[in-house]
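Troubleshooting log. The previous structure file for this entry was overwritten by mistake, so regenerating from the original sequence record. Sequence copied from the archived sheet and checked twice against the printout by T.R.
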Amino acid sequence: MPGDVTTAIESVENAQQASAAAPKARTAPRGLWLLPSFTDLAMLLPVFVVLVRMNGLSGLLTDADTAWHIATGRWILAHGRVPTQELFSFTMGGRPFCAWEWLWEVIAAWLYGLGGLSMVVVASIAVISATFGLLYRLVRRTCGNMLIAMGTTALAMIVSTIHWAARPHLFTILFTVLFLWILERAREGGLRGLLSLP
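Regenerated output below.
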């Protein structure tokens, strides 16, 4: 028993000497943690593009369908059901109608009730930012190079700005990137996510 204690003490002393002799790890300069990561940049870049290139938040409201979607969402919230006939068309009023985007319309109407069009626009920017943050992470995971991933993300962002409007197709773009993320994970062996795909 005393030999075991002596051996334990010697191994602790040896470990202490080895750690003292090991080169000290470099620590990051103070305040470096305040700098944004590349993922943060990929998520902030759409905000910058909307504010500078698209003339501010109203740039996401250039499509007249946004108001139509909000009105349909308000109707759904008021009546507790999805409309089956055209409600707002002068030329097609009463005709059969399928509200494919009913869930987004309800969310947009709810957001509109909370804070008007500004809230709908802010939520749309959040979806765009999440899309490109996820895209950056996907490309970086695939190629392993931060600069190539950021360049690819920036290029995709520039090309897609024509579709940036406060409309439901923003979720289509987000879910397309998420779909690709799940496929990439499956390629690496993470097969559980495949069950969530349509």
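Residues 62 and 165 are 7 Å apart (CA to CA). Archived copy saved in two places this time.
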